[in-house]
Design goal:
This protein is α+β, with helices and mostly antiparallel strands. The protein has one domain: Ribonuclease H-like superfamily/Ribonuclease H (Nucleotidyltransferase, domain 5), CATH 3.30.420. It has 5 helices and 4 strands, in the order E-E-E-H-E-H-H-H-H. It is globular and about 45 Å long. The two termini are about 20 Å apart.
C-alpha cells in the first residue's frame, strides 16, 4: 500500500487529497479545501492555510503516515502572482514540518499533471475531474475543482513512478 498526500496549493482556495494505492488500484481516501478571504492580509491568509493543513494532516496521518508528499508546481509571471502562492507553499511546509514531513518529490507542473492524467496538457477542469473519477472509481462530488486537482497531482506522481497504469 502507498499513501500519497497531494496538495493543489494556492492562497485563495488550496486543496488536498490522500490517494491510496493498493495492488495498483488508486482510491481517494480523503479530500479537503479551504477558502481564504482576499480582503485579508497575506500573513493572516497564510496562517489560515497552515492551520487547515495542520488539522488535515493530524486527522489523517494515522499509524501509516504518508509514503509520498507532492504538490503542483507554479511559475507566475510576476511577484504579484508568485507571492501569494509561495506564501501558501510556506504555510503548508510549516504544517508538514510539525509532523516531521517534507515534500518528498519535486513539484509537478500543471501541464505535466494534465498531460499525465488526462492525456492533454491543456485540459479543462471538468476533464481533469472526469479523468480522476475514471482512474479512481470515485462516485462522489468534488466540493471544488481544487480537490479534484489535488487528486490529479497524486495520480500524476503514481503514474510517472509506475505505481499505477492508465
Amino acid at each position: 500500500m502507498t499513501r500519497i498526500l497531494a496538495f493543489d496549493t494556492s492562497m485563495a482556495r488550496p486543496g488536498v487529497a490522500i490517494v491510496t494505492i493498493t495492488r495498483g488500484k488508486p482510491t481517494i481516501t480523503a479530500l479537503s479545501h479551504v477558502v481564504t478571504d482576499s480582503k485579508q492580509p497575506h500573513g493572516l491568509r497564510a496562517e489560515i492555510v497552515e492551520s487547515w493543513a495542520t488539522l488535515f494532516i493530524a486527522d489523517h496521518i494515522g499509524k501509516d503516515g504518508f509514503d509520498v508528499v507532492v504538490r503542483e508546481d507554479f511559475n507566475g509571471r510576476s511577484s504579484r502572482q508568485n507571492h501569494p502562492v509561495f506564501s501558501a507553499w510556506g504555510a503548508i511546509d510549516q504544517a508538514l514540518n510539525k509532523f516531521g514531513l517534507n515534500f518528498t518529490t519535486p513539484a509537478i507542473s500543471q501541464s505535466a499533471v494534465k498531460k499525465t492524467v488526462v492525456g492533454n496538457g491543456k485540459a479543462e477542469k471538468d476533464e481533469v475531474a472526469d479523468a480522476v473519477r475514471k482512474l479512481t472509481g470515485y462516485k462522489g462530488e468534488f466540493a471544488t475543482d481544487d480537490e479534484s486537482d489535488a487528486v490529479a497531482i497524486g495520480l500524476a506522481y503514481a503514474i510517472q513512478k509506475g505505481l499505477i497504469t492508465k
